[in-house]
């Protein structure tokens, strides 16, 4: 039943975690907007798909959520990083950096270097 | 860890039914509101801003579903949904569901019942510690007291001396225990001391002192027997079975340490055997008391305990770890030869030759002594096959029902496909239905199995109240039954599911159900043919067993059971010595003759048609050595009349044949036929046990060949001698060891039925001596009937299975035919509208059904003929298929097929053409 997205599996989750790490507790729209701003087109449509992901992260224990008042004084659900989430983020970032480094080196390699 | 927590949360949500939809709705509202604000700030109109925000949110339903899936366990949920739906569908067609569940229940139940019995009888180990390390010395059921030497030299039971010698000299055994081989034939009379209870005749087994230790058993109360109890001169001790303790003494703790009278002698019960222990072999009546071997001469007054020539013990030992069985067997053989070399039996000139042949075969001892198993093995396996066939038929039936249903629901599947259901989803739905059906059948089958096992036990061991077999199916059986039903469900659920899932939606809209090419498929037809063929085989078997039974029951037994009663007694256990029995027998004759209605009072060693025999060698004086064995019975003057045996030549035993009179014998026809030339007059001839003693008895009469032991035991020689006379050549003092002096039964012939005879017999015996009790009381007819109980059981069960098969096959044929008619309603309507007569329609439908049945018959008849050779060993004088039985089975099956075809045919003929055409 999985819907195909253009985003690589896990990438969006990492973005969510990073956003919460940088900006602190935030509601869903805020997270979506932030990701949209930084990543450009990603999440410019299908913002709704963010919510099942948030739920998953919460069930995994990486984030926590609670009701709070939004800017226009309505009830909104605020998400924040848990300690486990912070660890998770560190791991993911490290892994991601490693992967990109390896890929970068690999792609930059020229015939004479091999 | 992450995954674990996620699954945990999911399961929790699923279990508590939290869906989180409310939260998502609120979050979405908020999200859209914020986006709308943002859009407004960007200068859109109110309406446009909201529209764009909603667009940005994306597919609302998809998000909702993803969210839901994330929250709970979607797979399980759809499964539950499927199950609920399947349940609803099955409820909607109750006849189909009932027939399917019933079919499965009967098929599975019959199998599980037989399997439970096989498991209990043939496969189960004794309830002892570590049964795998137990080894039995010997592997056959030689019983009960024997003077060694079989021609092949194989030893399976032993003398006390052999046992003690082996126990001392084979250190490879942790413990070597010995037990009485023939305790079932020698009940003990037990009465609790200082209680008003009448003495009871019960099973008591004499065992070695280390018996319970060797089996690794502890007492449920008190202590187990020990070696110090099993010493000559030790105080008499016994252990009581747990069953007896609980049922007869209410688990009274005071039983331990109390004194019982065993064969009138005081014996202290030192402990209660563990719960569930039924002795070293499976018997319908397990031992109630376990007594030390060394107390046997004192309690049972038998001569063989310390006679090194007489074998009477089975031996089971627990081997130490790491001992090779082959080496052990060699060692036991060598030691046994060495021990036997010193006995009388091997001191003659053939001795060394015989000694060399002597050997013991070690066999697994964990199952105990396989005494009952041997008798039931073949029959149980045959019944297993029969019940397997029934299951096969049941499965074919279920498959057919599912196929029919799958076809009938084609339209439904089409509509579903058209509405967007995926093929996998439909297949899953149909599979769920058949699995549900199979499970229901499995559960119902267990109920049938439980009831069936109880019925089987009651039929197999009539009158036995403590058969140590539990009727509740074990875990293995449980798994077996469920596995079978699930496999059936899945297997035959897949085919229709697959067929149905191939539906194209367009069919549904085109009205695919109106088709002339309806009717059953080849698969369905072949299933019906298979059922018909198999049920014919089972019917023929049932017929043969019925015929075999009736043949057995109509054998001329050459006796008369009308108004005769058999009172088994045991003067030995009442404390009589061999020298005291004369006055006892006189008293029995006098007292019983004094009872009103009693015409004849026979006294005998044993009676016709009971499980007993006493064979001795015979040698006619003046003839070359002929090595013949004849059954030996001591009887009083009234005996022949009391059982209805006619004297055909000379005279019977007379009152004048006293101890001091000339020694006479009456022989049976077979004795004369085998040992004398035709025309030779046997009267006045002498015979004895061997060449030296050939003058022991003078033949004074010949009687007909009354059936002893069993109806099928033919051509055996017998001789009858007066109760108190002993062979001339026997020394006077050997009377003290002469077991044959003891009578085993009193046979009463009355001039009318005497229903209270049992009570009268009890009182009369007690009047002679309070210790003289009735070991067993039966009418002669009941005793004879018992000999046929096994044949009757087989006949009943095969009839049951045959009937079951017939019922299932009929149902199957009916189902397929009825389905065909339903499918062809429109076609038949058109035919009739075009002028087809009702009779023609009926004939058309009937023809279809009968052709299938006939093909089944054509296949079944040769199969049945072929199968007979596998069951003929269980039949009495039937070697091939009997014409009448075959014809009868064919007729029954044809009749059933006619009924199965007639009902749908009638329905087809009653179709109203106008209505039929309007249906779609």
Q: Summary?
A:
The complex is a heterodimer of chains A (114) and B (920). Chain A has helices at 11-23, 28-39, 50-60, 83-108; strands spanning 26-27, 63-69, 75-81.
What does this entry look like structurally?
The complex is a heterodimer of chains A (114) and B (920). In chain A, a hairpin with a 5-residue loop joins strand 2 (63-69) and strand 3 (75-81). The longest helix of chain A is centred in the C-terminal third of the chain and has 26 residues, at 83-108. Chain A is of the alpha+beta class and 114 residues long. Chain A has a three-stranded antiparallel beta sheet with strand order 1-3-2. Chain A has one domain: Arc Repressor Mutant, subunit A (Orthogonal Bundle), CATH 1.10.10.10. Chain A has four helices and three strands, in the order H-E-H-H-E-E-H. In chain A, helix 1 crosses helix 2. Chain B has 920 residues and is of the alpha+beta class. Chain B folds into four domains: 2-72, no CATH class; 131-371, no CATH class; 375-553 and 789-918, no CATH class; 570-774, no CATH class. Helices cover 51% and strands 13% of the residues of chain B. Chain B has 28 helices and 25 strands. In chain B, helix 13 runs antiparallel to helix 18 (522-553). The longest helix of chain B has 38 residues, at 371-408. The relative contact order of chain B is 0.10. The chains are: A alpha+beta (114), B alpha+beta (920).
- Largest interface: pair, residues per side: A-B, 29 and 34 residues
Whole-angstrom Rg of chain A: 17 Å
Which second-level CATH architecture of chain A applies? Orthogonal Bundle
Task: State the assembly state of the protein chains.
Answer: heterodimer
What is the alpha-carbon Rg of chain B in Å?
38 Å
- The number of distinct helices of chain B, counting runs of at least 4 residues, comes to 28
From the 3D structure, determine the CATH topology of chain A.
Arc Repressor Mutant, subunit A
Q: Got a strand count of chain B?
A: 25
Which secondary-structure class do the elements of chain B indicate?
alpha+beta
Q: Specify the structural class of chain A.
A: alpha+beta
Distance between the termini of chain A: 44 Å
Tell me the major beta sheet of chain B: 8 strands, mixed
Q: What's the arrangement of strands in the largest beta sheet of chain A?
A: 1-3-2
DSSP strand count of chain A: 3
Helix content of chain A: 40-55%
> What's the CATH H-level homologous superfamily of chain A?
Winged helix-like DNA-binding domain superfamily/Winged helix DNA-binding domain
The CA-CA distance between the termini of chain B, in Å, is 60 Å
């Amino acid at each position: 039943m999985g819907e195909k997205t253009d985003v690589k599996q896990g990438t969006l989750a990492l973005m969510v975690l990073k956003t919460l790490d940088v900006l602190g507790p935030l509601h869903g729209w805020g997270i979506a907007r932030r990701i949209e701003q930084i990543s450009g087109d990603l999440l410019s449509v299908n913002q709704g798909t963010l919510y099942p992901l948030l739920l998953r992260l919460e069930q995994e224990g990486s984030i926590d959520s609670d009701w709070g008042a939004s800017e226009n004084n309505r009830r909104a659900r605020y998400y924040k990083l848990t300690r486990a989430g912070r660890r998770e983020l560190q791991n993911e970032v490290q892994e991601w950096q490693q992967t990109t480094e390896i890929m970068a080196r690999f792609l930059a390699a020229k015939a004479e270097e091999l | 860890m992450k995954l674990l927590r996620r699954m945990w949360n999911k399961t929790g949500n699923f279990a508590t039914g939290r869906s989180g939809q409310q939260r998502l709705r609120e979050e979405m509202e908020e999200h859209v509101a914020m986006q709308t604000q943002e859009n407004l700030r960007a200068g859109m109109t109110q309406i446009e801003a909201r529209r764009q925000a909603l667009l940005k949110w994306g597919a609302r339903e998809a998000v909702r579903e993803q969210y839901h899936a994330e929250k709970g366990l979607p797979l399980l949920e759809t499964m539950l949904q499927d199950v609920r739906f399947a349940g609803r569908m099955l409820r909607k067609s109750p006849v189909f569901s009932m027939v399917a569940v019933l079919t499965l229940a009967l098929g599975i139940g019959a199998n599980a019942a037989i399997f439970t019995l096989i498991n209990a009888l043939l496969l189960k180990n004794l309830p002892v510690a570590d049964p795998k390390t137990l080894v039995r010395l010997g592997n056959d059921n030689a019983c009960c007291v024997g003077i060694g030497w079989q021609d092949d030299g194989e030893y399976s039971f032993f003398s006390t001396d052999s046992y003690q010698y082996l126990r001392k000299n084979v250190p490879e055994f942790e413990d070597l225990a010995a037990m009485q081989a023939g305790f079932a034939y020698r009940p003990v009379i037990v009465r609790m001391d200082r209680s008003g209870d009448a003495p009871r005749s019960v099973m008591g087994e004499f065992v070695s002192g280390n018996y319970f230790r060797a089996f690794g058993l502890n007492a449920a109360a008190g202590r187990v027997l020990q070696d110090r109890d099993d010493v000559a001169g030790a105080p008499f001790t016994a252990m009581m079975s747990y069953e007896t303790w609980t049922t007869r003494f209410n688990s009274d703790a005071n039983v331990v340490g109390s004194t019982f009278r065993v064969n009138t002698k005081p014996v202290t019960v030192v402990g209660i055997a563990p719960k569930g222990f039924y002795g070293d072999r499976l018997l319908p009546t397990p031992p109630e008391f376990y007594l030390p071997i060394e107390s046997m001469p004192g309690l049972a007054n038998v001569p063989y305990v310390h006679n090194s020539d007489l074998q009477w013990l089975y031996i089971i030992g627990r081997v130490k770890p790491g001992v090779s069985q082959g080496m052990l067997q060699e060692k036991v053989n060598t030691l046994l030869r060495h021990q036997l070399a010193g006995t009388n039996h091997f001191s003659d000139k053939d001795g060394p030759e015989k000694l060399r042949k002597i050997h013991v075969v070690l066999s697994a001892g964990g199952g105990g002594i396989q005494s009952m198993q041997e008798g039931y093995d073949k029959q149980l396996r045959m019944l297993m096959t029969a019940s397997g066939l029934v299951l096969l038929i049941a499965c074919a039936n279920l498959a057919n029902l599912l196929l029919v249903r799958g076809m009938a629901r084609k339209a439904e599947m089409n509509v579903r496909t058209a509405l967007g259901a995926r093929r996998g989803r439909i297949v899953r739905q149909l599979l769920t239905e058949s699995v549900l059906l199979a499970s229901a059948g499995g559960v119902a089958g267990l109920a049938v199995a439980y009831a069936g096992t109880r019925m089987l036990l009651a039929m197999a061991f009539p009158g036995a109240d403590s058969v140590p077999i539990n009727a509740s199916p074990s875990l293995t059986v449980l798994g077996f039954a469920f596995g079978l039903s699930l496999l059936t469900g899945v297997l035959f659920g897949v085919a229709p599911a697959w067929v149905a899932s191939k539906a194209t939606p367009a069919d549904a809209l085109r009205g695919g159900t109106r088709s002339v090419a309806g009717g059953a498929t080849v698969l369905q037809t072949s299933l019906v043919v298979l059922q018909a063929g198999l049920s014919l085989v089972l019917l023929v078997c049932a017929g043969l067993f019925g015929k075999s039974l009736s043949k057995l029951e109509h054998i001329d037994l050459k006796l008369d059971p009308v108004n005769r009663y058999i009172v088994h007694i045991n003067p030995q256990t009442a404390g009589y010595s061999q020298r005291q029995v004369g006055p006892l027998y006189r008293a029995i004759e006098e007292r019983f003759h004094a009872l009103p209605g009693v015409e004849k009072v026979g006294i005998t060693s044993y009676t016709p048609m009971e499980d007993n025999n006493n064979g001795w060698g015979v040698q006619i004086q003046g003839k070359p050595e002929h090595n013949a064995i004849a059954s030996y019975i001591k009887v009083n003057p009234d005996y022949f009349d009391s059982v209805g045996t006619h004297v055909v030549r000379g005279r019977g035993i007379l009152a004048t044949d006293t101890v001091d009179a000339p020694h006479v014998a009456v022989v049976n026809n077979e004795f004369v036929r085998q040992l004398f030339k035709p025309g030779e007059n046997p009267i006045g001839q002498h015979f004895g046990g061997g060449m030296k003693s050939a003058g022991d008895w003078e033949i004074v009469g010949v009687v007909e060949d009354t059936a002893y032991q069993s109806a099928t035991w033919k051509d055996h020689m017998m001789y009858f001698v007066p109760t108190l006379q002993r062979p001339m050549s026997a020394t006077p003092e050997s009377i003290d060891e002469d077991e044959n002096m003891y009578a085993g039964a009193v046979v009463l012939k009355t001039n009318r039925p005497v229903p209270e005879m049992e009570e009268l017999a009890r009182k009369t015996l007690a009047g002679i001596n309070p210790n003289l009790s009735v070991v067993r009381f039966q009418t002669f007819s009941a005793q004879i009937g018992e000999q046929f109980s096994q044949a009757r059981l087989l006949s009943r069960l095969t009839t049951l299975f045959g009937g079951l098969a017939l019922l299932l096959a009929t149902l199957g044929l009916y189902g397929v035919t009825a389905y065909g008619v339903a499918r062809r309603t429109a076609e038949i309507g058109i035919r009739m509208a075009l002028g087809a007569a009702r009779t023609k329609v009926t004939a058309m439908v009937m023809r279809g059904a009968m052709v299938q049945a006939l093909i089944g018959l054509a296949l079944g008849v040769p199969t049945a003929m072929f199968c007979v050779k596998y069951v003929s060993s269980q039949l009495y004088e039937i070697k091939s298929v009997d014409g009448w039985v075959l014809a009868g089975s064919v007729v029954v099956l044809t009749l059933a097929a006619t009924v199965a075809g007639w009902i749908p045919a009638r329905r087809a003929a009653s179709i109203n053409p106008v209505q039929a055409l309007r249906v779609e």
